[in-house]
TrEMBL record:
Monomer. Its cofactor is Mg(2+). Pathway: Amino-acid biosynthesis; L-methionine biosynthesis via salvage pathway; L-methionine from S-methyl-5-thio-alpha-D-ribose 1-phosphate: step 3/6; Amino-acid biosynthesis; L-methionine biosynthesis via salvage pathway; L-methionine from S-methyl-5-thio-alpha-D-ribose 1-phosphate: step 4/6. Keywords: Amino-acid biosynthesis, Hydrolase, Magnesium, Metal-binding, Methionine biosynthesis. This is Enolase-phosphatase E1. One of its GO terms (molecular function) is 2-hydroxy-3-keto-5-methylthiopentenyl-1-phosphate phosphatase activity. InterPro entries: Enolase-ppase_E1 (IPR023943), HAD-like_sf (IPR036412), HAD-SF_hydro_IA (IPR006439), HAD_sf (IPR023214). Its EC number is 3.1.3.77. It comes from Streptomyces boluensis. It catalyses: 5-methylsulfanyl-2,3-dioxopentyl phosphate + H2O = 1,2-dihydroxy-5-(methylsulfanyl)pent-1-en-3-one + phosphate. Binds 1 Mg(2+) ion per subunit. One of its GO terms (biological process) is L-methionine salvage from methylthioadenosine.
Length: 245
């Protein structure tokens, strides 16, 4: 796999990061985070049934399954079915985010990053490149994820956090246009790193630059990333901004 260089003048002002499969192992999410949330959905739904975020997420679950009267047990069953399918349904992610952020704060959970990721993020941040996140994981989950890394609190490295609630579905170009507008940066100077071809296609359709991150063992590794430039690790991605040239 050849290294990707973005070193033309004014190449990149901002990098937007996908998490699962890109900065971090899908295996960790599925084997550690998913069981943690699965075992706590029941308690969350019964003990915090009046929490506005829970109320809103439960209403969204009922709407998605087409059962306006679904009780807590039915809602929990739907959440677990989506977990089994790894379906990135927004209310599932909202409820997982509530559970995980408490788990991270309590010290039950510590996030995972591939070895090449944190050095690259520090390098890019030091070079003046803004780092943002766009993940199906909720903003609350993303914040906890970066705050509780094996190397401590990484939140000072990252700027804005986007999820399917505040930006929209990751496979739709409109979501990336929304982020461009919110960030106030040129689409053509924004680089999206993701493992999923559908997300990369949507970002490119919105005028973003893209690099597909293909890590052996990840679910999308065999499928590849189509026509997008690709990198096996963040070490292969050389970035610079106008100000550094
Ligand atoms: C800290 S987010 C936890 C991972 C997760 O639930 C998820 O759905 C990540 O999906 P991504 O869009 O980052 O591939
Ligand atoms: Mg991903």
């Amino acid at each position: 796999m050849s290294a990707v260089r973005y070193d033309a003048v004014g190449a990149v002002d901002a990098v937007v990061l996908d998490i699962e499969g890109t900065t971090s192992a899908t295996g960790f999410v599925v084997d550690v985070l998913y069981p943690y949330s699965r075992s706590r959905f029941g308690a969350l739904l019964s003990e915090r049934s009046t929490d506005p975020e829970v109320v809103r997420a439960v209403a969204q679950v009922r709407e998605l399954i087409g059962e306006p009267e679904a009780d807590a047990a039915r809602v929990e069953r739907a959440l677990n079915e989506w977990l089994d399918e790894d379906r990135k349904a927004t209310p599932l992610k909202t409820l997982q985010g509530l559970i995980w952020s408490e788990g991270f704060a309590r010290g039950d959970l510590v996030s995972h990053f591939y070895d090449d990721v944190l050095p690259a993020l520090r390098r890019w941040h030091a070079a003046g490149i803004a780092l943002h996140v766009y993940s199906s994981g909720s903003v609350a989950a993303q914040r906890a994820w970066f705050a509780s890394s094996p190397e401590g609190d990484l939140l000072p490295l990252v700027g804005e956090l986007y999820d399917t609630e505040n930006a929209g579905p990751k496979q739709e170009a409109a979501s990336y246009r929304r982020i461009t507008e919110a960030l106030g940066v040129d689409a053509g100077r924004t680089l999206f790193l993701s493992d999923r071809p559908g997300e990369l296609d949507a970002a490119r359709a919105a005028g973003w630059r893209t690099v597909g991150v293909r890590r052996p063992g990840e679910p999308y590794y065999e499928q590849g990333v189509g026509e997008h430039p690709e990198a096996g690790t963040f070490d292969e991605i050389t970035l610079s901004t106008r100000s550094t040239l």
